[in-house]
Amino acid sequence: MLEDRMRAASSPTAWPAAYPKGYAVVDVETTGLAREDRIISAAVYRVDARGEVEDHWYTLVNPQRDPGPVWIHGLTSDVLEGAPLFPEIAEEFSARLDGRVLVAHNAVFDWQMIAREYARARREAPVRQRLCTIALSKELGLPLPNHKLETLAAHFGVVQQRAHHALDDARVLAEAFRPSLRAAAAGEVRLPLHECRPLTEWTDRSVPRQPAGYGGYRQTSWRPARKRPACPYPNPGRYEEGKRLRQGMRVAFSGDTSIERDLLEDRATEAGLHVATSLSRLTSLLVTNDPDSGTSKVVKARQFGTPVVDEAAFGQLLGDVEPASEG
After folding, report:
1. Cα separations (Å) of 148 from 153, 179, 216, 271?
2. CA neighbours within 13 Å on the CB side: how many for 17?
3. Domains defined along the chain, listed by start
4. Which of 46, 68, 162, 215 is in Cβ range 3.0-4.6 Å of 31 for a Cys bridge?
């Protein structure tokens, strides 16, 4: 089936009218994964409706704090010291994103980091939809052993030159996105597009790290109210330790998380899980970093015998969610 799609994608076909007219393939490197972390480099490959590259852009960004895991991204404080602040590159970044669908590998993360930077700068990113290439590879049924960027690149014969360098990662993703998009068009596959809701305010709790000129913003856990789409899969029951999560499982969260709650919930939703706001006997799994706390969800989980995992374990489980159609 996949081979048929790929062959069809290489020949002229009628392009789906509902597909977007252009994309911005994005990669950002950051100081970490938490809500107070910052972007330190960003790259955008603009591609047209059929995935052909139009141009690309790259910049370093001075986070005015420690650069985080230098052993991963290679960007030291000395390298970033003379780089522009995010407000200084926001206009150019916007020009690259404007009117396009944001495409990224694990797009929820890139979008959340970008949205927070714009909110700090008292601006709004001109992005209304995003497309995750992990989700697209699942829609296409690509025979991948995992969903790492290097695995997707190898599947399409794309050679990585500098892993965890924003410009090269964006190039690799753009080159892998083109055949994915064409295979989707040939097979009339629905693109996994998701709405992007920009933050409209921001305050920083980590005041000592606050950059000058950011208008006294302080960080908070503020997030816009939103209604999530209904999960399309039936609840298969409770999570069993040592096994995979399965699409349709009801997941609840309790307590503080190192990664922003919206990010975790969006990742769960995009993986096909049902994010529940309360805990009941139907809940498949509770995610909490403090299983001994007295919150109502933790207490109910004890009463109902609901399985509990911490944030780190949940992140690992999200990387390999079993499709609802299996078994």
Report:
1. 9, 17, 38, 15
2. 0
3. 2-209 (3.30.420.10), 227-327 (3.40.50.10190)
4. 68
What the block records as the tokens of 320 is 């390999």
Kindly state the tokens that stand for 252. 């609840």
**Ordered strands of the 53-60 beta sheet:** 53-60, 39-48, 22-30, 101-104, 129-132, 193-195
> For residue 123, what are its two tokens?
């601006």
Q: How far apart are CA 88 and CA 214, in angstroms?
A: 11
Per residue, the 3-state secondary structure of 135-192, as one string, reads: HHHHHHCCCCCCCCHHHHHHHCCCCCCCCCCHHHHHHHHHHHHHHHHHHHHHCCCCCC
- Tell me the pLDDT tens digit for each residue of 45-81: 999 999 999 999 999 999 999 999 999 999 999 999 9
Beta bridge partners of 30: 39
CA distance linking residue 212 with residue 255, whole number of Å = 32
DSSP labels, 62-113 = --SS----HHHH---HHHHTTSPPHHHHHHHHHHHHTTSEEEETTHHHHHHH
- What does DSSP assign to residue 83? S
Angle, helices 2-9/166-186, rounded to nearest 10 degrees = 100
Question: What letter does residue 84 receive in the DSSP assignment?
Answer: P
Catalytic site residues?
164
Q: Scanning the structure block, which residue is given the tokens 């500098």?
A: 162
> Is 211 or 156 the better-scoring residue by pLDDT?
156
- CB atoms near residue 49 (< 10 Å): 14
Q: How far apart are CA 18 and CA 291, in angstroms?
A: 46
